[in-house]
Specification:
Layout lengths: L16 H4 L12 H8 L9 H5 L6 H9 L3 H11 L3 H7 L6 H4 L11 H14 L14 E5 L3 H12 L3 E6 L7 H5 L7 H13 L3 E4 L9 H7 L2 E4 L5 E2 L12 E3 H13 L13 E5 L3 H12 L4 E6 L10 H9 L3 E4 L1 E8 L5 E14 L5 E5 L5 E4 L2 E4 L3 E2 L4 H5 L23 E3 L2 H4 L4 H19 L2
Parallel strand pairs: 1-2, 1-4, 2-3, 4-16, 6-14, 7-8, 7-14, 8-9
Antiparallel strand pairs: 5-15, 10-11, 11-12, 11-13
Length: about 450
């Protein structure tokens, strides 16, 4: 260990930019064993590991880095799976620069440990050697229904199955995974990675009921009657609209409906929208990771041009730095310090341009972040054949919430106590449907911790 003087930080190698924009395959290569061991060997094994504290799951990062450096892959695999429901997913999609790697002591002058890449390596190499996550072989005679097969739901199922509790998962889509399957493009997360974790859960006894929407295809009452507890992990999938005139035009879309539509096209599943951006000028408004997913997907769908408009600058973008860099490499144009003012339509009601106004950063608001101020008289138009708004997501208040006494806050998030139990005994919730749109890793933590609370309740 402590070889940060001798070894520089090396990021995982990326595929050639020209080749990678021709398909939806992952762009990052997995470390080879020598590289994985070397990069782990840079860790200084802090007495108070900031990376551990910076991770919402509080993963045992220094411990599995040490095991990897010592070429004890099996122990590293077990440690990485101890606290995380799907570490090979987190290694690919977490904004490491804002979490574990951003907290690394070596950031100051030496370059953080490539935690995400090593995490992916440990698990992918482990799978090659036949390692599998461990689940209880003994059942305790209790069963839990999980609504939503996304990150929170899959996490809850994982930790319930580890304790011998039977799990049945209900999801309205044709495939399990939620956001991991339909909302995150394959160039960031190959879909076989998600399907493999689902298979592990099935092998452990999980039963998946797909194409089943609670409140429509199956009543909530049936779940409360047939199961000892229920976990709600339905996410926050309601896209935020702009409030601008013309936003209901046929060529204006919300980010998630675009991403889901393209993924269903790839899966050859029935589609609702059939959004076509080929040979069109695409404008994406927003600066987070979802906006980056939209611009990079548009490039792969052979758009004529792709432009991202954001009201602050690159430094203030809320997403991961690497996603912005990847988008720039792939040919996305960025315009900063601009905000949409109106949508310009033709006589057919189609948007043909976005009227923008230039902005500047003013005094900090109550959160400490600088306010965005418009510059009067700076309006100009950006031509657009397709406009995609990536302005974040809100929770959906499903009818079965209120009809079953499940209370929500003023934003529509499900209210829970410190044990993730809702206002109804035996009904738990976590992830974005509780806290609002957030990271996959926080949804995974909620699912894990809610599962632990359910286990305690069910084994009293």
């Amino acid at each position: 260990m402590l070889r940060f003087f001798d070894l520089e930080r090396i990021d995982a190698k990326k595929r050639d930019v020209v080749e990678r924009t021709k398909d939806f395959d992952e762009i990052y290569e997995v470390f080879k064993p020598v590289k994985g061991s070397e990069q782990s060997d840079r860790c200084i094994q802090c007495g108070d590991p900031y990376c551990h504290n910076g991770c919402p799951l509080h993963n045992l990062i220094p411990q599995w880095l040490k095991a990897t450096a010592n070429n004890d892959l099996e122990f590293a695999f077990e440690l990485s799976n101890e606290t995380s429901p799907f570490p090979e997913v987190m290694g690919r999609i977490c904004p490491h620069d804002r979490l574990c790697e951003g907290s690394c002591t070596l950031n100051d002058g030496y370059g953080a440990i490539t935690i995400g890449s090593v995490e992916t390596f440990v698990n992918e190499e482990g799978f090659k050697k036949g390692f599998k996550p461990k689940f209880s072989q003994e059942k305790i005679g209790k069963k839990v229904a999980v609504i939503g097969a996304g990150p929170a739901g899959l996490s809850a199922a994982t930790f319930l199955l580890r304790e011998g509790i039977d799990v049945e998962i209900f999801d309205k889509q044709a495939r399990a995974g939620g956001l991991l399957t339909y909302g995150i493009p394959g160039f960031k997360l190959d879909k076989h990675v998600v399907a493999r974790r689902v298979k592990f859960l099935e092998e452990a006894g999980a039963v998946f009921h797909l194409n089943v929407e609670i409140g429509k295809d199956k009543t909530f009452d049936e779940l409360t009657e047939d199961f000892d507890a229920v976990f709600i992990g339905v996410g926050a999938i309601k896209g935020r609209k702009s409030g601008l005139t013309g936003e209901d035009a046929p060529n204006v879309h919300l980010a998630m409906e675009f991403l889901v539509d393209i993924q269903k096209k790839i899966f050859e599943e029935p589609r609702e929208k059939h959004i076509d951006v080929k040979d069109k000028n695409v404008v994406v408004i927003g600066g987070g990771d979802t906006a980056m997913d939209c611009v990079r997907t548009s490039l792969r769908e052979k758009a004529r041009s792709v432009k991202c408009l954001y009201r602050r600058d690159a430094h203030n973008m809320p997403g991961s730095r690497k996603e912005y860099v990847n988008a720039k490499e792939e040919g996305v144009e960025f315009e900063f310090y601009v905000s949409p003012k109106s949508l310009v339509t033709n006589d057919k009601g189609e948007v043909i341009a976005v009227e923008m106004i230039k902005t500047k950063l003013g005094e900090p608001d109550s959160s400490g972040r600088q306010r965005v101020e418009e510059i009067a008289g700076s309006e100009y138009n950006v031509a657009a054949d397709v406009v995609i708004f990536a302005l974040g997501f809100d929770t959906v208040e499903y009818p079965f919430f209120s009809s079953n006494g499940i209370e929500t806050d003023k934003w529509g998030g499900v209210l829970v106590d410190e044990n993730y139990q809702t206002t109804q005994a035996g009904i738990y919730a976590g992830g974005d449907c509780h806290r609002g749109a957030d990271l996959v890793v926080t949804a995974a933590r909620d699912g894990r911790d809610a599962a632990k609370a359910m286990v305690k309740m069910l084994t009293k």
